[in-house]
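Exam revision sheet. Question 4 asks you to relate a sequence to its structure. Input first:
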Amino acid sequence: MLISNDVSLNVSEFLLQIKAIKLQPNNPFTWASGIKSPIYCDNRKVLSYPKIRTFIRQEMVKVLEDNYGRPDVIAGVATGGIALGALVAQELGLPFVYVRSKQKEHGLSNQIEGYVEKGQSVIVIEDLISTGASSLKAVDALRDFGCSIKGMVAIFSYGLAESKENFKKAKCPLVTLASYDSMLTKAIETNYITSKDSKLLRDWKKDPKNWMK
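Answer key, structure tokens:
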């Protein structure tokens, strides 16, 4: 999938700059899954910075058009992909829907919010990819409804082997604006981390579950 190295480095720098990405190899975070991680990412912060938000919106549109072509509908993954997806849909003048992690337990019991028709082509927008499991639930919901999925675009991915395998099994192409490797390159270049820290971070990516062991 096509993505400019300059764009990847620029987005990585922005994420580090606004502390959407935090790196603490010597004082790891604990994820909800229990995994100890030297990195924590909260891309919702992008929405608070107009210039960065605009850059990411514009680059998402370019990546989307270059890799997948124009869809019928843009879908955001709840919750991180909702605002981003709406921005992309607005830029393209396309309908927008968002997909919950599960059906509501009241009212109409919707999982897909908004209007979409069976047979329509959809591109899914996400803010962050870890294992990909939650993101791909949205893909499954749209396919179950009768939509065809052109692919997914996200701001950042940890680049874990598990996520690559999950997307491959789901037959869902994925493009991210910034990669784990481009982020490390920029972090070293800007003295955010040392080369020793970089090794710890690369070791984590190879085997997150056993990194602390």
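Marking note for examiners. The mean pLDDT is 94.
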